[in-house]
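Holo prediction. Input below; ligand is heme C.
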Amino acid sequence: MKKIMLAYLAILAFPALTFAQQGNDPLADPLLPFYVVTGFVFIVALLVLGIAIYLLQILNMLIRMQEAARPEAAPATAKQQSLWQRFWIWINGYQPLEKESELLLDHNYDGIRELDNHLPPWWKWLLYGSVVWGAAYLIVYHVTDTFPLMDDEYKMEVAKAAEQKAKLAAAQPAEVIDENALVYQPDEAILASGKKIYAINCASCHMPEGQGSIGPNLTDDYWIHGGSIKDIYLTIKNGVPEKGMISWAPVLSPAQMRDVAFYIKSIRGTNPPNPKAPQGELYKEEGSNGSAEQGASM
Ligand code: HEC
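Structure of the complex:
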């Protein structure tokens, strides 16, 4: 019994642990009553099983005591049988050999005869158990609607996730970026963030140092889609899908697109090795001193 209880406690503790890992409040789970009731049903079933085994043992003990009280009458075989053997005989409904003549059916096919054995008790109890379980299931899930069906359970979880998402979005509203008001500033935090975003998302096509490969060189003064901070931001935001540059708006937040646009501005004129030949038109930085003349061979 102790072992059973320990095992059950372990089973109970497992979902509690997974809840803890998720960092959710387990009490807020809409399926909590379901888990609690299932848990209780499980406990009760285990207890009933334990008590049944216990009673069986007591019964066996009583039988043995009775047999011991009249040693001459007790059949020798019953004494020699272990508890397990007797359980095996009982659960399978084996009949003693002496009874065989009573079980014999009338037909005789060329000497082959048949015994009228009952179905073994384990089989019958399995059937009765399934019937009871089925009835309880039907009532609980389809008549009283006490517990949600799988489909509803899924919808509840989706609704819960949507609620959490809305909460999260409300807690950290996305920074609104107005591309018309963007002014490039070499802000260290923004450039560091932009550098990271660039390394993860952009370096594969524009190369780690911006010298260009599949995508154009981002360090020179030639731009296909314009070199102002607003143009760069809009190219990142809308992409040039037909040329292989996706729109990054679904991937990056407005602030992240601003960060990476600022980073691209910051690497202008860094002259990385193996640059891709200039593409597009020369863009003159406002207030530029003509440094844009380099590489004007296009
Ligand atoms: C799958 C490859 C690919 C990836 C990844 C990629 N780009 Fe591009 N990018 C291109 C191509 C190709 C072009 C040229 C489009 C054209 O020819 O009009 C381009 C053009 C650009 C331009 C305009 C250049 C100009 O000359 O006007 C900018 C700015 C730019 N990309 C920024 C980025 C940023 C920022 C990222 C990461 C968030 C990024 N790209 C990721 C392929 C890519």
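Residues 179-286 form a domain with the Cytochrome Bc1 Complex; Chain D, domain 2 fold (CATH 1.10.760.10). That is the main takeaway for now.
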